[in-house]
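User: Can you predict the 3D structure of Aldo/keto reductase? Sequence below.
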Amino acid sequence: MRTITLNNGVEMPMIGFGTDISGDLTALEPTLTLTIQAGYRLFDTAASYGNQRQLGQFFSTAGIPRDELFITSKVAQTEQGYQQTLAAFEATTQALQTDYLDLYLVHWPKYGPFFETWRALETLYRAGKVQAIGVSNFESHHLDRLLTQATIMPAIDQVETHPYFNQHVLHEYLTTLGIYHQAWSPLGRGQVLHDPVIAKIAERYQVSVAQIILAWHLQKNVAIIPSTTHAERIQENLNLDFQLTVKDMAKIDALQRGERIMGAPDENYMEDKW
Ligand SMILES: NC(=O)c1ccc[n+]([C@@H]2O[C@H](COP(=O)([O-])OP(=O)(O)OC[C@H]3O[C@@H](n4cnc5c(N)ncnc54)[C@H](OP(=O)(O)O)[C@@H]3O)[C@@H](O)[C@H]2O)c1
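Assistant: Sure. Here are the predicted structure tokens for Aldo/keto reductase:
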């Protein structure tokens, strides 16, 4: 599994498995077993996905030493604030059956407890309870605000990124700050999979459309956490050992439409104005 080094020296797999799997949670266990067999070691979880207890049960019986797993979780909107975040960390780690997290993210920017939530993450980091801290759904103005008080630079910004919403401006900004870009919904939650331009490219490389999109992310130095409930796709999404030409990369870049799947961060969960 290819890894990258975060700005604090922590090694993180470039490809992880997204666990925001809706529907019947009993379906999750066979899927997770296959992910381990296929070689996934990074699992992207969140308190708000409602399945951390089940994931914890799985991790504790998966037969993989804890230090070989990379477990990410996120502070939910309802958990933000200094004491609330510290309590949320305890609840999350208890559910996940681990005493530390590899990466803990602020799930969405929230105006009121904005700095207090980050201060709690810094406390957890300094106490050695999390290996790295970061944010999710932060745009440049959220980062600018955070950096007026933060004493630790976020290691990661996990944001919606796919060919129809490629975040190229934010990507450049993150690069200048030394924050690693991780894509959520890297396949556009399935919405980009029917794109005719990418289908043509896939035909030439004799791989699937999903593989072309995921390889495009990796070539742009963006980490990915695709999710699937299909056995054969679990393996397929890891088989990305090919290079796209500069011309094909440019064709996919040109598909940018500025279309988000979910609302903009400032429209989601914002009780107060920025
Ligand atoms: N930080 C945040 O706010 C945030 C928000 C959203 C998501 N996330 C994270 O990102 C992860 C992934 O996002 P996502 O699930 O929304 O979107 P995604 O990974 O872009 O797309 C998943 C969809 O693509 C399909 N798919 C996956 N691999 C495929 C393949 N090889 N061929 C054809 N179809 C394929 C899946 O269908 P099947 O299951 O039928 O294969 C599913 O419908 C989540 O699980 C979560 O961990 C984070």
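The longest strand covers residues 130-136. The chain has a mean pLDDT of 95.
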